[in-house]
Amino acid sequence: MILFLQILLIVSSVLLVLLVLLHRGRGGGLSSLFGGGMQSSLSGSSVVEKNLDRLTLFVGAVWIIAIVGIGLLIKLPGAGS
Amino acid sequence: MLGAFRSALATPDLRKKILFTLGIIIVYRLGATMPAPGVSFKNVRACAEQLEGQNIYSLINLFSGGALLNLSVFALGIMPYITASIIIQLLTVVIPRFEQLKKEGQAGQGKLTQYTRYLTIGLAILQSTGLVALAVRGQLFGECDQDVIPGKDSIFTLIVLVITMTAGTSVIMWLGELITEKGIGNGMSLLIFTGIAARIPAEGKNILNKSSITFALVIVAALIIIASVIYVEQAQRRIPVQYAKRMIGRRMYGGTSTYLPLKVNQAGVIPVIFASSLLYLPDLVVRLTQGSSSEPNWFSTFVQTYLVKQSSWVHISVYFLLIVFFTYFYVGITFNPDERADEMKKFGGFIPGIRPGRPTAEYLKFVLGRITLPGSLYLGIVAILPNLFLDLTGDGQNQNFPFGGTAVLIMVGVGLDTVKQIESQLMQRNYEGFLR
C-alpha cells in the first residue's frame, strides 16, 4: 500500500512540476517583487490557462492525498514499514 | 480607517480578490506544517525544540516561515525562487542575450521570468537533495540523536522525499503567481510576509516568558522602528516637470505641471534580501561539500567564525557594505535616467531650468545618486540593528527576530505595497482610502 502511494506521489510530483512550468509566469520576476510598481495584468486568462488551472488543481489534490496517506500509514502502528 | 475597511469589503470585486488571497495564504500555511512523507513528525518536533535559540538556519528559516525545521512539504519555501531571481538578475548584466531580452519589454521580460522558473526547479532539486542529505546524516539538527527519517535505509524513500519537496517548491511558485494574477498584491512577497508574520506570536511569547519588562521595551522599540521605516519608505523627492500645451485636433493637452517622484529608498527591500542570500551561500557550499566525518578545513572554519556568526564584526560590516552596494546596483538596473529623459522629451515635458534631452538625464542621474545614499545607509543600518543589539546583550536575539532588521523591512515594505494596491482599487470607485 505504502509503495503504491509512494509511486503515486512520484508521478503526481513530476506532473505537478511540469504543469506549473507550463503556466505562463505572471510573477514578472524580481522586478515586480517588493514594490516594483503597479502593472496591470492586461489579458484575462484564456481557455487554455483555465483548463491548465483545473488540471493543476486536480493533480495537486492527488499529491496532497498521497502525502497525507503516507503520513497516516507511517503513524499507524504495524501498517508502516 | 475602519470605514475604508468596510468599503473595501463592500466592493464585490475587491472582496473576492481579498478572500482569494487569504485562501491561498491559508493553503500555504497548512502546507508549511504538513510533514513530508517519511519524516517522523514527533522526532522532528523534539529536535526542533532543542534547536530553539540557536541560529544556524536563521535566514532560510525566516523566509520559509519555520517550515524548514519542520521538514515539511514546503520546507524550501520561497528561497529557491529568490535565489533564481537574483541569479537571473545578475546575469542580465553579464550575458548580452539576457540584457537584450530585458530591453525587449513585455515579451522579453516574460521569457526571463520563464528562465527564472526553470532555474527555480533546478535549484529546488539541489537544495532539497542537500537538505535531505543533511537530515539523514543527522547534521541538520546538531546534537539531536532522534531519528528524523525512520525509513532512511531505503534509497527509494529518500528519492520520494526529494521529489516531493521539489514539487512543493513549484506549488509555492504557482500559489504566488496565482495571488499576483487574481488576488491583491505581489504573491511572492506576500508569501514571504506570511512566513515572517507567522513567527511573531511564538517569538513574542518567548520574550514574555523571559521577563515582562523586556517584552514592553521590545514592543516600544519595535513600534519606533516600524514608524521610522514607514517614514523613510514613504519619503520621496518631487522633481517638478512642466508639460507644454499642445493642440491635437481641437482638444488642448498638457500645460500642467506635475512632478516626478524619486523615492529615497527606490530599491525597496531587495538589497537586503540579495545581501543576506549572498552571505548565506558560502555556508551552504560548506555544508554540501563537507562530509560527516572529515575534519573542518580552513575554509569552513573561516566561514563559520566570520560569515555565519551574526555577532562578528566581519559579518556585520560585510552585510552592511553588500546592502549599500546592492541598493545602488538595483536602482541602477531598475531606473534608467536616459529613458526617462527621452520619454519626457517625447511628450513635451521638461524640468524647469534644465534643457530636455541629455542635460535632463544627467540631472536625474545626479539627483538619484545623491538621494540613494541616505536610502542605502538607512537600509543597511536598519538591517544590522539586531546584530548590534546582539553584540551588546550577547544572547538570544538574531536575524529572524521578527521585531527588527530584515524582518521588519520586509514586512513594512510588503504591507505598504499591498495596502497601496488595495487603495488604488478603491480609488477607482471613488472611495476614501486607508492612507491620507
What does this structure look like?
The complex is a heterodimer of chains A (81) and B (436). Chain A is mostly helical. Chain A is built from three helices and no strands. Chain B is mainly alpha-helical and 436 residues long. Chain B is 69% helix and 6% strand. In chain B, strand 2 (245-248) and strand 3 (251-254) form a beta hairpin. The chains are: A mainly alpha (81), B mainly alpha (436). At the A-B interface, helix 1, helix 2 and helix 3 of A face helix 6, helix 8, helix 9, helix 10 and helix 18 of B. Chain A: The chain crosses the membrane at residues 55-74. Chain A: Involved in protein export. Participates in an early event of protein translocation. Chain A: It is found in: Cell membrane.
Task: Give a brief rundown of this model.
The complex is a heterodimer of chains A (81) and B (436). By secondary structure, chain A is mostly helical.
Given the helix and strand composition of chain A, which structural class is it?
Answer: mainly alpha
Helix content of chain B: 55-70%
Shape of chain B: globular
The biggest sheet of chain A amounts to: none
Shape of chain A: elongated
What is the mean pLDDT of chain B? 78
Function (chain A): Involved in protein export. Participates in an early event of protein translocation.
Protein name (chain A): Protein-export membrane protein SecG
InterPro entries (chain A): SecG
Organism (chain A): Lentzea flava
Layout of secondary structure:
The complex is a heterodimer of chains A (81) and B (436).
Chain A: H1 2-22, H2 29-32, H3 47-75
Chain B: H1 2-10, H2 12-33, H3 41-51, H4 58-64, H5 67-70, H6 79-94, H7 96-103, H8 106-137, H9 155-182, H10 187-197, H11 200-210, H12 212-234, E1 236-243, E2 245-248, E3 251-254, E4 257-263, H13 270-289, H14 298-308, H15 313-334, H16 337-346, E5 349-350, H17 358-393, H18 406-427
Helix pairs in contact in B: 2-9, 2-10, 6-7, 6-8, 7-8, 8-9, 9-10, 10-18, 11-12, 12-18, 13-14, 13-15, 15-17, 16-17
Membrane topology (chain A): Multi-pass membrane protein
Keywords (chain A): Cell membrane, Membrane, Protein transport, Translocation, Transmembrane, Transmembrane helix, Transport
Organism (chain A): Lentzea flava
